[in-house]
Every structure is written in C-alpha cells, then in structure tokens.
C-alpha cells in the first residue's frame, strides 16, 4: 500500500459530501483512504481465516488418525503436521505483510497531512 490513497485504482466516495459540496475535500479523501485501509485489512483477515480453517480440518484429521492407532494413519500424520506447520508460516506471512502495509499507510497519511498543513500555512 505504498503511496498515497489518491494514487489507488480503487477509490470510493463515502457519502454525498463531495457530490453535494457539503464537506471539504480533505475529509472525503481521508474517508476514501479509510475504505482502502479497511478493505486491505478485511482481505488479509479473510485470507488468514481461510488458512486457519484449513488447519482446523487438518488437526481434526490428525486427531482421528491418532485415535485410530492404525500404523498407516499415524504415518500420514507426519505429512499432515508438516502441512499444518506450512500453513502457520502462511498466516505469519499474511499478518506480517498486513502490519507492514498498515504502518506504511499510516506513515504516508501523516506525511500527506503535514504537507497539506504546510500548503495551508503558505496560503494564509
């Protein structure tokens, strides 16, 4: 999510402020930015949840295999446990990327506000 929200392809106009001229453009821009941030958060959480749901099913299968005490099923558990571990790594990556993207967005918005504040000071 590097860059400003103005540069995003996916933009939303929240409410009718901008269309009606009832609000200032900075508020609408901030709301559009918030939609992009929330969309990114939502997408990341859905991806993580899908992997966690898959792990739940794998863990259930591992438990069934363990309870059966059938040697072949116990051998299958090795591969299932490896898959669970791989999925945990995927979830860590998703959350790590989410954290980086969110931090970059917050930093960029802070820079944008500081820049806008400097422009306003020059105009006054």
TrEMBL record:
Keyword list, A-Z: Biological rhythms, Nucleus
TM regions (residue ranges): none
Pfam families named among the record's database cross-references: Elf4
Subcellular location: Nucleus
Keyword Nucleus: yes
Sequence ranges assigned to domain Protein EARLY FLOWERING in this UniProt record: 33-112
Record-linked PANTHER family: PROTEIN ELF4-LIKE 1, PROTEIN ELF4-LIKE 4
Family: Belongs to the EARLY FLOWERING 4 family.
Protein name: Protein EARLY FLOWERING 4 domain-containing protein
The species this protein was found in: Hibiscus sabdariffa
